[in-house]
Every structure is written in structure tokens, then in C-alpha cells.
Amino acid sequence: MTKKYFGTDGIRGKVNSRHINGDMFFKFGLASGTYFKSQKKKKQIAIIAKDTRLSGYSLEPALVSGLASAGMHVYTLGPLPTNGLAMLTKAMKANMGIMITASHNPYYDNGLKLFGPDGLKLSDKIEKKIEKLIDKKIEINLSKPRELGRVKRLESANKDYINILKMNFPKDFNLRGLRIVIDCANGAGYKAGPELLKSLGAKVFAIGIKPDGLNINKTCGSTFPNKIKIAVKKYKAHIGISLDGDADRIIMCDEKGQVIDGDQIIAALAIRWKNKKMLKGGVIGTLMSNYGLEKFFKLQKIRFLRSNVGDRYVKEKMQKYNFNFGGEQSGHIILGKFATTGDGLLVALEVLFSIRKGKKASSFFNTFKKVPQILNNIEVKDKSIINNTKVKNTIKKVKKIMNGQGRILVRKSGTESKIRVMGESENRKLLEKCINLITKTIK
Known about the structure:
Layout: E1 11-14, H1 22-37, E2 45-50, H2 56-69, E3 73-79, H3 82-91, E4 96-100, E5 109-115, H4 124-134, H5 138-141, E6 151-153, H6 157-166, E7 179-183, H7 192-199, E8 203-207, H8 226-234, E9 239-243, E10 250-254, E11 259-260, H9 262-275, E12 283-286, H10 291-299, E13 304-307, H11 311-321, E14 325-327, E15 333-335, H12 344-354, H13 361-364, E16 373-379, H14 389-402, E17 406-412, E18 418-425, H15 428-442
Parallel strand pairs: 2-3, 2-4, 3-6, 7-8, 7-9, 12-13
Antiparallel strand pairs: 1-5, 4-5, 9-10, 10-11, 14-15, 16-18, 17-18
């Protein structure tokens, strides 16, 4: 059974169309509140955070209304990184946490990410149960007047999140003497990111910290790493950190201006964790992880498994195999020893802790040679075009042409109206030919 509202990472889409509007957010709040209230926990608490999109001001009140109508007591936290919400959901012993965000998408999209009391994203099974409640008549789930929830604003969320992050490191850990560039994508991390690094003594050059509701992810952040590359050189920084709109992704840059993607960060930290005997089981990547990473881990005798794309699926596989490390090339990295979901700032701290004794970022990263990879994101009106006979036949043809010299992955985006065509091969010309064939057929 496919899901009606939820995708690979919550609910996402264009604002004021289909599922992303005040009416639907009231229903989402009512349905999720009803589901978690049915778990018969003594306190009925939901906490809500958001990124900096203009639409958050219209969608949040509708969501709050739905939750309170279901009898949930609601705390609103304001702009806060996604993992900050996950951490506080656990710390506050709340029934649930809801992040209003469309992550790395443009300002005109928005959505929801839902977390359970354990700080984990909801399973497909629970999402389907909530979907059934969404489609029921509203009157069925409304609370009696005396049982309505109360709503309160919590102003200390960013400070509380920063304190939780710092508790994972020794008390004497500091960043004095380090020059750090951080690009907060004009998103949810625009307060917590610079404040965290400054509190540890770093000289911080912060960009992407002036959100206006419309500039989130706009030519900045982890999907536009050229920004930190330029800034690192300009400010002669030791390292650059680039977050996405809800700060659960990280792309980095070394002191030479070399951009470091998620796979390179995963490789460097996994080796460190193995050497420090912190790595448990191995590493979970995804179908998009570079084949060079897989080969590298094989040489290092680190077990490596792939999951479907999406950090929720990475986490599920980590739990299944009892691994404590996993992540995606895009920069969603889950440090299972410390967190339940991807956290750009936590990963940044772990990297900074690793190089604190004068080690250069360039010598810490670039631990493996990537296999050339091309990714084409094709905008489509209907993602079911992937099942078109012509498209299927072209993919079969391409796999024959490749003849074992690489791999091709064609999949629907779980968050946007796009088909993603990814290929890897040491033979660059062959790779370009194959990717272009599929791209032309889809277009």
C-alpha cells in the first residue's frame, strides 16, 4: 500500500496547493494529535519548530489549532534545526515533535517532518495510521471543550539545543584559534550555528544569517557550496560549514577551498571512529553513495550496507543491523552515538573535535578517490513517467551499453517533482553518453 500524503521525508509540496495549506495542516495536526493521544501517555504534549519560510506564519497556527483540538498541549519553539526539535522532543518527554520545513527546497515549498517520543522519525506503519485519521470526518477526532489543549511559546529552544550538543564533548573542548566560515542558508540554523561556534571560542564568519522569509536556500547553503568555497578563501578560514534550510544536512570546505561532500565526511569520521573503537557494526550508506566509498570501506575492513534514499531509511537500517553510523552523499549524516537523525551542527562539531589539535581539514578529508558520478535532476509534471515503456527500454539499453563498467540508478524524487538519474563509471565518456540517453528519453 502506497502512502497518500507522506513521502520519503514527511510531507512536502508547494504552498497553498494540494496538501500544503491551512486546511490540510489543521487536519494533519488533528490526526497526528489523535494518534499520539491514543497511546495513553499521561502528559499530552506536542512541540513544534520551523525553518524561516514566510509560509510558516500561516501554516503553524493551523497545525497548532489541529493539535489543540485533539487535546494536545502545544509548545511552539520558533526557528530551530530539525535535530534540535528531535533532541528536545526526547528531553521534554513530549508525545511528538513536528518540524515545519521543506528542508533544502525553495521558499515556495513547505512541509512537515514528524518525530515520535524517542526522537525518531515515524515509521511507514505509523504514517499510514495517521493518514487514515486524516481522511476521517473532523468531528470524530475533536476533543470535548474541557479537554482542549493549551498553547505556549518556549523562547529558550536554541539555547537548550546548543547545551545538549556541547554535552556530547569534553568540558574543556574549545575552538580557540580556529577561523570558521558558516553558511546557514538563511534557514533554521541561522541563530544556533554562529552562537554555538562563538561560544566555543572560534572566530566566526557567518553568512546566510539574514532570513526574510523568501531567501531560504537561495544561492546559499549546502545545495550551493560555492558560497563557502569563496568565503573560506576570502577570510583565510581553516574550514567552512554549509547547512541546508533546516540544518540537518552539512557540506564542508577545507582550508584550500576544496568542497567536501557527505561521502567524504562519512569516510573521514568512520575511520576516526574505527580507530577510537567507537564504530559499532559498520556504516549505512544509500543507493546514491559513491562506489569509491564502498571500495574504500572494503579496503579498510569496515562493513558497508546501502539503504533506500532518505535519512529515515538510513536510520531504520542502522537500527536493524545495530550500526551507529550512517548517512548520505547529500550531507544527511546520522551519528547514532549522539543523535537519532541528521544534524549538520553536530557533525560539524565532531569534525572540529577531530582536527582541534592543529590538524588541517585537507589532511583529515579526501580519504578515498571518488568514482566519477553524474546526477541529473529532471523536472517532470508526473513522476510516473518513470514507468513509461520507452523510458524502461532506454534504461535496459543503457545497462547493456555499460556492460559492467559502472552503474545507473533512475528514481523518483521523494520530495520534489523530479526524476533523478545518477550514473557512475571510471569511463567518463561512456557515462555521459548513457546519462544523456536516459535524460533525453524522459524529457
